[in-house]
Amino acid sequence: MPWHPLRNEPGNMSWDGAPFGGAKLAAMLGDALLVYRRDDSPDIPFPGLLDLPGGGREGGESPAECALRELAEEFGIALPVERIYYARAYRLGDGVTISHFLAVQLTEAEVAAVRFGDEGQDWALMPAADFIADEDAVPRLRDWLGHYLAAEAADRRH
Questions:
Q1: How many domains does the chain divide into?
Q2: Which CATH number belongs to the domain containing residue 150 in this structure?
Q3: Does pTM top 0.85 for this prediction?
Q4: Which domain range does residue 124 map to?
Q5: For residue range 2-44, what is the model confidence (pLDDT) as tens digits?
Q6: Residue of 39, 49, 114 whose CA lies nearest to 79
Protein backbone atom coordinates (compact mmCIF):
# COMPACT_ATOMS: atom_id res chain seq x y z
CA MET A 1 0.00 0.00 0.00
CA PRO A 2 1.46 3.44 -0.88
CA TRP A 3 1.92 6.32 1.55
CA HIS A 4 -0.81 8.94 1.76
CA PRO A 5 -0.38 12.66 2.45
CA LEU A 6 -2.30 13.77 5.54
CA ARG A 7 -2.29 17.44 4.65
CA ASN A 8 -2.56 19.12 1.31
CA GLU A 9 -1.29 22.47 2.52
CA PRO A 10 2.49 22.33 2.05
CA GLY A 11 4.25 24.67 4.42
CA ASN A 12 1.79 23.99 7.23
CA MET A 13 3.99 24.17 10.33
CA SER A 14 1.35 23.08 12.81
CA TRP A 15 1.67 19.78 14.62
CA ASP A 16 -1.37 18.69 16.59
CA GLY A 17 0.58 16.50 19.02
CA ALA A 18 -0.60 13.27 17.36
CA PRO A 19 1.74 10.26 17.68
CA PHE A 20 4.16 9.70 14.83
CA GLY A 21 6.93 7.26 14.01
CA GLY A 22 9.67 9.56 12.78
CA ALA A 23 10.75 12.51 10.70
CA LYS A 24 12.98 13.16 7.68
CA LEU A 25 14.67 16.41 6.77
CA ALA A 26 15.51 18.08 3.47
CA ALA A 27 18.64 19.95 4.56
CA MET A 28 19.35 22.28 1.65
CA LEU A 29 22.28 24.45 0.64
CA GLY A 30 20.69 26.48 -2.12
CA ASP A 31 19.44 23.86 -4.57
CA ALA A 32 21.75 21.15 -3.20
CA LEU A 33 20.51 18.49 -0.82
CA LEU A 34 22.46 16.88 2.03
CA VAL A 35 22.27 13.09 1.55
CA TYR A 36 23.98 9.95 2.73
CA ARG A 37 24.22 6.39 1.52
CA ARG A 38 22.72 3.91 3.97
CA ASP A 39 24.77 0.99 5.21
CA ASP A 40 24.52 -2.02 2.93
CA SER A 41 23.20 -4.35 5.61
CA PRO A 42 20.25 -6.67 4.90
CA ASP A 43 18.81 -6.19 8.41
CA ILE A 44 17.92 -2.50 7.91
CA PRO A 45 15.29 -0.85 5.71
CA PHE A 46 16.50 0.42 2.32
CA PRO A 47 20.06 -0.99 2.53
CA GLY A 48 22.58 0.83 0.37
CA LEU A 49 20.13 3.50 -0.83
CA LEU A 50 20.54 7.26 -0.72
CA ASP A 51 18.73 8.71 2.28
CA LEU A 52 18.08 12.01 4.05
CA PRO A 53 18.80 12.96 7.65
CA GLY A 54 16.16 11.77 10.05
CA GLY A 55 14.86 8.74 11.85
CA GLY A 56 12.62 7.45 14.59
CA ARG A 57 11.01 9.55 17.27
CA GLU A 58 12.41 9.41 20.79
CA GLY A 59 10.28 10.20 23.82
CA GLY A 60 7.94 13.15 23.45
CA GLU A 61 9.82 14.87 20.63
CA SER A 62 7.99 17.04 18.13
CA PRO A 63 8.63 16.30 14.44
CA ALA A 64 11.08 19.22 14.25
CA GLU A 65 12.94 18.13 17.38
CA CYS A 66 13.17 14.58 16.03
CA ALA A 67 14.52 15.62 12.62
CA LEU A 68 17.01 18.09 14.09
CA ARG A 69 18.27 15.62 16.71
CA GLU A 70 18.92 13.14 13.92
CA LEU A 71 20.69 15.85 11.86
CA ALA A 72 22.97 16.53 14.83
CA GLU A 73 23.65 12.81 15.43
CA GLU A 74 24.22 11.93 11.78
CA PHE A 75 26.04 15.05 10.54
CA GLY A 76 27.09 17.04 13.61
CA ILE A 77 24.92 20.01 12.59
CA ALA A 78 22.94 21.48 15.52
CA LEU A 79 20.14 23.87 14.55
CA PRO A 80 17.26 25.48 16.46
CA VAL A 81 13.70 24.45 15.55
CA GLU A 82 13.05 28.00 14.33
CA ARG A 83 15.14 27.21 11.24
CA ILE A 84 12.51 24.72 10.00
CA TYR A 85 10.44 26.42 7.30
CA TYR A 86 8.46 23.56 5.75
CA ALA A 87 6.62 20.62 7.28
CA ARG A 88 4.18 18.05 5.98
CA ALA A 89 2.87 14.80 7.45
CA TYR A 90 2.34 11.54 5.60
CA ARG A 91 0.67 8.26 6.47
CA LEU A 92 2.98 5.38 5.59
CA GLY A 93 2.01 2.27 3.65
CA ASP A 94 0.79 0.41 6.74
CA GLY A 95 -2.10 2.89 6.85
CA VAL A 96 -1.36 3.76 10.48
CA THR A 97 2.15 5.13 11.01
CA ILE A 98 2.63 8.86 10.48
CA SER A 99 5.95 10.30 9.38
CA HIS A 100 6.87 13.95 8.94
CA PHE A 101 8.93 15.62 6.22
CA LEU A 102 10.56 18.94 7.02
CA ALA A 103 12.99 21.35 5.34
CA VAL A 104 15.73 23.70 6.46
CA GLN A 105 18.32 25.83 4.63
CA LEU A 106 21.92 25.29 5.66
CA THR A 107 24.83 27.73 5.42
CA GLU A 108 28.12 26.98 3.69
CA ALA A 109 29.83 27.11 7.11
CA GLU A 110 27.46 24.48 8.51
CA VAL A 111 28.13 22.13 5.60
CA ALA A 112 31.87 22.73 5.85
CA ALA A 113 31.71 21.69 9.52
CA VAL A 114 29.90 18.36 8.91
CA ARG A 115 31.09 15.55 11.16
CA PHE A 116 29.60 12.42 9.61
CA GLY A 117 28.40 9.94 12.22
CA ASP A 118 28.70 6.17 12.33
CA GLU A 119 25.53 5.36 10.38
CA GLY A 120 25.87 5.12 6.64
CA GLN A 121 28.72 4.77 4.17
CA ASP A 122 29.33 8.37 3.09
CA TRP A 123 27.60 11.69 2.57
CA ALA A 124 27.39 14.28 -0.18
CA LEU A 125 25.59 17.34 -1.44
CA MET A 126 23.65 16.63 -4.61
CA PRO A 127 21.16 18.58 -6.69
CA ALA A 128 17.68 17.94 -5.29
CA ALA A 129 16.40 17.11 -8.78
CA ASP A 130 19.08 14.41 -9.09
CA PHE A 131 17.93 12.81 -5.83
CA ILE A 132 14.34 12.69 -7.11
CA ALA A 133 15.49 11.04 -10.35
CA ASP A 134 17.90 8.58 -8.70
CA GLU A 135 16.52 5.04 -8.45
CA ASP A 136 19.07 4.45 -5.67
CA ALA A 137 17.23 6.94 -3.41
CA VAL A 138 14.58 5.90 -0.87
CA PRO A 139 11.40 5.93 -3.02
CA ARG A 140 8.99 7.74 -0.71
CA LEU A 141 11.60 10.43 0.00
CA ARG A 142 11.94 11.07 -3.72
CA ASP A 143 8.20 11.75 -3.79
CA TRP A 144 8.16 13.82 -0.61
CA LEU A 145 11.07 15.96 -1.83
CA GLY A 146 9.15 16.50 -5.06
CA HIS A 147 6.14 17.77 -3.11
CA TYR A 148 8.38 20.14 -1.17
CA LEU A 149 10.06 21.50 -4.31
CA ALA A 150 6.66 22.00 -5.98
CA ALA A 151 5.44 23.91 -2.92
CA GLU A 152 8.58 26.07 -2.97
CA ALA A 153 8.11 26.80 -6.67
CA ALA A 154 4.47 27.76 -6.08
CA ASP A 155 5.49 30.08 -3.23
CA ARG A 156 8.02 31.82 -5.51
CA ARG A 157 5.30 32.45 -8.10
CA HIS A 158 3.07 34.26 -5.58
A1: 1
A2: 3.90.79.10
A3: yes
A4: 4-157
A5: 333 434 333 345 677 888 999 999 999 999 999 999 999 999 9
A6: 114
